[in-house]
Amino acid sequence: MARGTSPCRFRACPGSGSACGGDIGAACTVAQWLRYWLATDQGIRPRTRQGYADHVRLHLLPALGRIRLAELSFRDVRRMFMALAGRRNRYGRPLAAASLERIRATLRAALNEAVREGLIDTNPARGLRLPAAPRPRAQVWTDRRVAVWRATGERPTVAVWTVPRLVDFLDSVRGDALFPLWWLAALRGLRRGELAGLRWVDLSLETAELAVVRQLVQVGGRLVSFPPKSQASRRTVALDPQTVRLLRRHEREQRTEGRFWDGRAQVFTRMDGSPVAPTT
C-alpha cells in the first residue's frame, strides 16, 4: 500500500470543501475519502447509498476517520471489527454477523474505488475474516411462539404463518380497500416494493399473468422507481381465477373513484391516487 503523505492525483471535493475538507488525494484522511466517495459515486442505488452512509457515519468515521488514507492498514481494519464485534445494539445484543459483513462490504467498496483512483495500491480490507453469517431458517409462527413473543419480545428471524393464521388474517382485512394487495402478498409472494410499484400495464388479466418489472423504494422521504435488484427478480407470475376476479373488481372500483387514469397508473394507491409506500 502507498505510504507517506505526498498527494496523488488531487481533485476538488464537491460542496466547496465543507464535506471533506478540500482536495482529495493520497494525503487525505479516511474520513475525507469516504465522504468524497459517497458524494461522487453515481453507480450506487439510492437505497444502497443510504445504507453505506449509515455505515460510514455510525462505524467507519468514528473508528478510522482520522487515519490518513495512504496509511490505513489491515491491522487498523481488523482492530475496528474486533471492537464492533464486542459492541451491543440498542436491544443489548451483539451486532449480528450479517451486520458486520454489510459494514465490511461498505468499507471494501470505498477502498476498491480508492485503488481504482490510484490513491492506494491495495485494499487493506481484503482478506479480513469475519464470523460466517448463519442463514436464517424460517420457523412456523405457532401459537406457542406468539405467546413467547408477547411475553418476552423474542421472535424468529424469519417466521411464516400457519394456513389457519393466514386465513384469519385475510378474513380480518377482507373489507380493506387494499385487500387485493394483501391477497397477492400472501398467495403470490410479491415483495412490498414490487406490490407498491405494480402498474396496470404490468398485468394481463386476459392471460392471467403478472409481470414483475419494477419496484418502488423509499429514499430520503421520496418514492423512487427502480428495476428489480436481480435478473431472477424479474419474473412472470401466474394468476389463479379468484385472483383475476379480485383484480378486475379492484380495477372497476378505481375507475369509479377516479383513481385510474391509464395503464401506467399504479394498481395500489391511496384514495387521492398517490402510490402506496412500501414501508406503510
Automatic annotation (TrEMBL):
<feature type="domain" description="Core-binding (CB)">
    <location>
        <begin position="28"/>
        <end position="115"/>
    </location>
</feature>
<dbReference type="InterPro" id="IPR011010">
    <property type="entry name" value="DNA_brk_join_enz"/>
</dbReference>
<dbReference type="GO" id="GO:0006310">
    <property type="term" value="P:DNA recombination"/>
</dbReference>
<dbReference type="InterPro" id="IPR044068">
    <property type="entry name" value="CB"/>
</dbReference>
<dbReference type="GO" id="GO:0003677">
    <property type="term" value="F:DNA binding"/>
</dbReference>
<keyword id="KW-0233">DNA recombination</keyword>
<protein>
    <recommendedName>
        <fullName>Core-binding (CB) domain-containing protein</fullName>
    </recommendedName>
</protein>
<dbReference type="InterPro" id="IPR010998">
    <property type="entry name" value="Integrase_recombinase_N"/>
</dbReference>
<dbReference type="GO" id="GO:0015074">
    <property type="term" value="P:DNA integration"/>
</dbReference>
<keyword id="KW-0238">DNA-binding</keyword>
<dbReference type="InterPro" id="IPR050090">
    <property type="entry name" value="Tyrosine_recombinase_XerCD"/>
</dbReference>
<dbReference type="InterPro" id="IPR013762">
    <property type="entry name" value="Integrase-like_cat_sf"/>
</dbReference>
